[in-house]
Amino acid sequence: MTASVLRLAAAACLAAAFASSATAAPEDRNARVEELLSQMTIEEKAGQLNFVSIVPVLEPAYEDVTRRIAEGSVGGLFNVYGAEQTRTLQEIAVTKTRLKIPMILAMDVIHGYRTVFPTPLAQAASWDMAAIENAERVATVESTAAGVNMIFTPMLDVSRDPRWGRVVEGAGESPWLAARIGEARVRGIQGADLKKPDNAASCVKHFGANGAVEGGRDYSALDLSPRALKATYLPPFEAASRAGVRCFMGAFNATDGRPTITNRHLLTDVLRGEWGFTGVVTSDFQAIKELPDHGTAADLADSAQQALVAGADLDMESRAYVKEIPELVRAGKLDVAVVDEAVRRVLRLKDDLGLFEDPYRGATPDREKREIFTDAQKAAAQDMAEKSFVLLKNDGVLPFAPDVKRVALIGPLGDSAADTLGPWAARGEPNETETLKQGLERRLGEGGEVLATHGGAVEDSTDEEIAAAVETARRSQAVVLAVGERFNQSGESAARSELGLPGHQEKLVRAVLAAGKPTVVVVFAGRPLALSSLAERAPAILYAWQPGTMGGPALARLLMGDVEPKGRLPMTFPRSVGQIPIHHEALPTGRPAETPIKPFTTGYGDSTYGALYPFGYGLTYTSFAFGPPKLDRERLAKGESAVVSVAVRNHGRRDGEAVVQLYLRPKVAEVSQPMRTLRGFARVALKAGETKTVELTVAEKDFGYWKSETDFGATPGPIEVMTGPDAANVQTTTLTYAP
């Protein structure tokens, strides 16, 4: 027998032994946790709180970690994947250690494991909760088949500065929309029963206000009031907590001068006290070790004590807990009861995952082959991609006519697999990714031809390369310009101070447009870019984001009109960097902007105040007329709800899908409220010429607001009820709240 077969046989026996000693009764499971806790030394307790990264290809580090696992000083690993690899490592924990406690095995699976879906911000553009939940279901099935039992996602940082590279990982600028997306993603990962081997624990990140960055820079923070935190940045996390998420990851930054990982008010008073969260809190990568750099801790021991007392259970890769906790306890500087409570939460999560019954959760090489990168999973990825694309402009170019057979594909991103996948692509393989070029070639078939030329690189182009691109355009019937960002120009540590097209791509676009061919600019990017010049010149602009494994065929189908554009923007697109931050929840001012520009009003002397493309914006291949909102009542008493009706007519020649968006604003409030806040939406499919009425509900909680950090409620009086296709194009009626 081979070594791997012997390991699998031994693992089967071990799993049976665990199963025979484990019952499903909650009281028995709690008793098991308490029994284990009572047997632990302080070193073993600290070991359970030690969350370590492992990279198998780095042999010295790998050998060090496996030795520490055997010693009982590692409670969880991350950056680990593959059924055989995870079984080998888990086997060390459950056979070599004194108490044989299995490990948490975690991984960043941000938008798919092997079958890579569009990036999270792109998924948010779908405004489709069922599709988003299904994307997480696929990612989790694949991840768990590879032995992963915890996934570091979703990221629910409200993001209003597109200079910040990590906007690509989030759900955009709306706390309400991010909350709905967070709920869907947690459901998709954890399912109804965490013990089922194809479910995993979701670790939502980055709790606090990691998106409240200064100047778009990673790891920085604005100084926010407690009320601003409650109103804007915490709602998505509270929604995830209500949805049953089992892990929170603290933010790196310090929104009140205190790094989140040592902010007891947030980690304990709010998260555990107000919200009733009973799961595990982990630090981010080396966040505890970095506390002296913030100037809030003296050394590693001080850092460990502060973080644990604040409510951080797991220390990710700082190795501060495993090193410092035993001595802190012995010196009387740390109460062992604080340590016990953190260990108890970690053990309960392991129990709830079913690790004591089966440490491997059924992950085998055979299951891994069977459940990863299937045709059904690839079809789901393509469907998600088709729903995420946002049509920003169309002067009749799209969809291409059926007789278009010779298409020029110009630009550095038309046949770039890695850039199609996007950042944080987990185990996605570029050689398994279908690019736009491949998608067009397949869609056009034998009678078609794709004339492809790069026109230079993302970062640079020569005059000769641009001239060759123009010549290619002249020989075509229609042109697709594939421009934007490379995959590594968005993501963590990828802040940008300028948001135009990188390199000489703007020059390439202008030269090709001058050829006069029907042209669509397809933009690949992880964030909103400032596209004012492009918007003036290009006849059609399609925002493709970074669409993942099946991005190419999805784009080809949309360009040729096989499917309709359905995406709507989850973030406002600025005209220039100078407008940032710009978002739909802007607060009013006593001197609002006016058009034409007047002195002594808010705005700019050299540009308009409005966005290039507003939040919620997105065109289709047809056109819709939205009627005004109509209420079923004029006054709303406490505990009641009102129904808002909106008639929508498709007055184009194609079938399509409208998205009716609902925004609210108390006209008079104790604290100044945003001009409009998203509080609902509804999709409606309409055949050409068809009219339907959409109904949306308004309740007190929808127009309530945080008057202070501790006081949430609604103010009696008029409530503006706004509906329309996006945040900038609404019609308004008034509902009176009279409790």
TrEMBL record:
Catalytic activity, reaction form: Hydrolysis of terminal, non-reducing beta-D-glucosyl residues with release of beta-D-glucose
Uppermost EC category: hydrolase
Keywords per UniProt: Glycosidase, Hydrolase, Signal
Chain ranges of the Fibronectin type III-like domain: 658-727
E.C. number: 3.2.1.21
One Pfam family recorded for the sequence: Glyco_hydro_3_C
GO function terms (MF aspect): beta-glucosidase activity
Signal peptide: 1-24
Superkingdom of origin: Bacteria
GO BP annotations listed: glucan catabolic process
SMART domains: Fn3_like
Family: Belongs to the glycosyl hydrolase 3 family.
PANTHER family in UniProt: LYSOSOMAL BETA GLUCOSIDASE (PTHR30620:SF16), PERIPLASMIC BETA-GLUCOSIDASE-RELATED (PTHR30620)
Name this protein carries in UniProt: beta-glucosidase
Lineage of producing organism: Bacteria, Pseudomonadati, Pseudomonadota, Alphaproteobacteria, Hyphomicrobiales
